[in-house]
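Many introductory courses stop at the sequence. We go one step further.
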Amino acid sequence: MINKWFLALLLLTGISQSANAVEILTYTPPFSADKKATVIQYRPLTTASKPWKLCAVYPHLRDSYWLSIDYGMVEHAKQLGVQLNVLEAGGYTNLDKQQSQLEECREWGADAIILGTVDSSAYNGKFSQLTGDIPIFSTINYLDNSDPDSKEHIIARVGIDWYNMGYKAGEFLAKRHPRDSGIMNIALLPGPLKRGGTKPVVQGFIDATANSDINIVTTLWADNSKELQRNLIHQLFSSGHHIDYIVGGAVATEVAISELRTAGKSHDIDLVSTYLSHGVYRGLLRNKILFAPTDKMAQQAMLSVDQAVRYLEHKPLQRDLAPIVEGLTPSHLPEAVIADSLSPAEFRPVFNVP
């Protein structure tokens, strides 16, 4: 667990010091397929002019990735003095539930909705019906805005291209195992097949390893629950494949640490995660995981709250923002990057900031 002095360091160096400028990416033109990234120094707001009502809707709070999103939003909402109501759908298969939660936001009287969607295209043509004229701010997961109704409602977004997360993981392995260095067999456990950013992650990984000795033997899909990911690892062990690496989402990678130990395979199979979580961070600290990229989820959450308040207060607004993705290894765990990524160890889900 993160100890007390490190918790203090997180608070000193992290998102709580939101008056300090942070280095991020802004894209122009926003939402465009051919948009260009520019590094900027972004200075978050320190207060709001009134207690705006923000409604945040997440796919789930099953893992510490979305817990860190919750933390980032809660802390910035408290600092600004705005209200925050948090709803979570319980998983990427629960589209109907998330749609009803958007209606709850409208009934609550939300001034703005921050949406981490369970499906990128599920809301095409539906926002007018579900949310009325409430402005929508897309966070973390890509939300398609190609239809006229979405264009009218989606004001801004914060989020990385998950292709880059997969590419970072693949690039790490490609450098370890260049062409003609000896074939390394990989099992991919990216997460849910049809939800989140898993498909771009896989494509990024494939592209990054194309000219290396990385050989993807199998790809196994399941939702991000420990039980389902554990079942996939057992399936992998019984498949008869020779595996050198398991590359997976954070939940799969966390579960793999204990399953490899139980099966006596810890020295035979190495682990790479495609994103960061508290468990992955501990795995990096203990040299159980070799690599994980971070998209600085607590920072992204802060930026989403900041975008919404800026829009409501008619202040200058960057409409398409992303953190700078950074690769982490057991020997490279910068404290400021961890603070921008993970909630403190004692943090538990907060569903309302009054």
